[in-house]
Amino acid sequence: MRLDKFLADHNIGTRKEIKEYIKNGRCKINGNVAVRSDEKINENSDEISFDGNILSYSKNHYYMLYKPQGVVSATTDGKNMTVLDILADENVKGLSPAGRLDIDTEGLLLLTDDGQLIHRLLSPKKHVDKTYEVHIKKKLSDIDIKKLEDGVDIGDKKDDGSVYPTLPAKIIKKDADSEGRPVIHLIIHEGRFHQVKRMLEAVGNEVLFLKRLSMGALILDENLKPGEYRPLNDDELKSIGAIK
Ligand code: URA
Q1: Which amino acids bring their CB within 6 angstroms of ligand 1?
Q2: Which of 134, 135, 197, 213 for a ligand 1 pocket mutation test, highest count of atoms within 8 Å of Cβ?
Q3: How far is the CA of 198 from the centre of ligand 1 (A)?
Q4: What pLDDT digit, counting tens, does each position of 138-156 carry?
């Protein structure tokens, strides 16, 4: 693969910036200063470093997407645009979203062709934290907060037919939004269908706007706008266990 593509995949900069960085001698291939941005490298065997940091290569692909509203978290859909349509230019086969956000929910979505990682992140046993920014219809009372934090009945049943309440959660109150609607951050450790909406319903409230801010160690990049995406950087790849 070309050196500049490799560096761009690591989110080092735009192709133009990368050309300049290489000219300035900031990139090394197997310990030798790289001179040309179109130089061919073997991403599996060459050691590439930038500003002295070795860049690891993963055969899999990992993208952070700021999922916009109106787009479905599926690989195909007869009616609506899918999150994969947004990444179509990447031409990467086998990408899937790690979990689903409702069509009217926005925020962090990881897309990858690493099936094992998806399995690890979504496994109910792993209890990966998810933080949501939730704008709601009315203020939560202290009693509601306690109920939501302790676990509420959202209508799910266990195999034996008994109530299957949500796991303990955490709520952080935030300032109201520009329309005066109360805002909370809700941290949950499960990923049940419409979970946040059903939890708020369980205490007689209603979700008016929902955005996922984080999933495990992965935090939505503030510089991304709805509909934008970028490859994960090395720190992020390490934090989710995709590279060592
Ligand atoms: N909970 C919901 O209700 N919807 C989402 O999209 C995500 C979590």
Answers
A1: 101-102, 105, 194-197, 210
A2: 197
A3: 9
A4: 999 999 999 999 999 999 9
Asked if 211 contacts 105 with a C-beta cutoff of 8 angstroms, the reply is yes
Using 50, 70 and 90 to split pLDDT, how confident is the model at 34? very high
DSSP for 126-159, written as a single string: T---EEEEEEESSPPPHHHHHHHHH----S-B-T
Domains along the chain with CATH numbers: 3-55 (3.10.290.10), 62-237 (3.30.2350.10)
Q: Quickly count: other Cβ atoms within 10 Å of residue 244's Cβ.
A: 6
Reported as a single tens digit per residue, the pLDDT across 40-84 is 999 888 999 999 988 877 778 999 999 999 999 988 898 999 999
pTM recorded for the entire structure? 0.84
